[in-house]
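User: Fold this; tokens only.

Assistant: Input:
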Amino acid sequence: MKQFILKKVINNDFTRNLGWLSIAQLAIRVSRLAATVILPRFLTPHDYGLAALVLTTYEFTQTFTKIGIFAKVIQSDDESLESTAIGAYWLNWIIYAALFLIQCIAAFPVAWFYNDDQLILPICVLALTLLVSPFGRVQSALIQRENRFKTIAIAQAARYGTANILTAVFAFMGMGMWAIVLPRLLAAPIEFVIYLMNHPWRPNKGFTTEKWGIIFNFGINILGINLLKTLRENLDYLLVGRFLGVTQLGTYFFAYNAGLGISLTIIQSIMTALYPHLCKLRSQFAAFKKGYFKSLKTIGLIITPFVLLQSGLAPFYVPILFGEQWTPAIPILVLICLSAIPRAFDSAAFSLLAAVDETRLGLIGNVMFTAIFAVSILVGVHWGVVGVAIAVLLAHAIFIPLYTAWATRYVFAKQRALAQA
């Protein structure tokens, strides 16, 4: 009986796909370990602060690429797949090229706002990665639609593993914040070359606006959700940098990445595997519900013990791995790390709503959470970076469980009614 249950779990699409992505993340983390240990020994808090502002600008720009193009290709039925893929391909080029120009222009007001001209060139250089993605973006969506997550795992491991190794090398060479920025550009083509090599799809017609309206109608709420999510994930950086200074931001940025970096990559892997899994099951109420709740259990069993272990060991491994100079960052690291547990279930709730075309409700929930989060940060900043970290943890720990429970109950009540109609 136990063997039968084990076999059933292993054969589950979500579990298998998450397994491949977890293997990829393990490979990425091994390569990142060198960078994580070396960076704090060669970079100053000011270097970290500058890198945080450059990466934050890039994250805001990249968010505008998340308008549901990728999700719509995955969700398309067989009859409309080819036309959707072609429309998505050309729409990608328009959006990514426009965002490249926008980020380069935005570099100047960002540098003025933080009173540091060193920000202009790296922001413009990092914008070049936006011109790489359209080459293999559709192929990536098609590979996920086909549940071939082994290819996705290999591509991500190759890209981010290379970037992490280059980061360690560049830091050792004394390149300062460029050790964090430049490898992201140099390694970006690797992922999309792998997608092109592993999927035969190519556009069979010239420029067209076909399916753009359908994609926009599907994705407008997804874009809103992603914008709010990006704002939340970077709002603490923006406010700490503005009110407490770039050096304090550097300390906070180090703690955030050392404490939450691994967890966020795990959460991203969970969401990447969960969404196609739920889309596949959504027409079968019983299987859909069972698959979702099994996924929640898997998420809890993976993320909770990992986060608790990492938080508990932080006072021991931070001085050893990163140096005694980062000891003051330990309380911040622990608080931020604990916020990863509710974040994972927030991603699951979003995947559930998107799978049943209820992204509007996800947008409403994100508007509410972003307002609560912003107020929390503005209050917390009065007590320095530790106050900000406490605010981050409390906002996530209180709001997200309530939101996830409500979204789950709403979706399955509606799906049950539709199944019985």
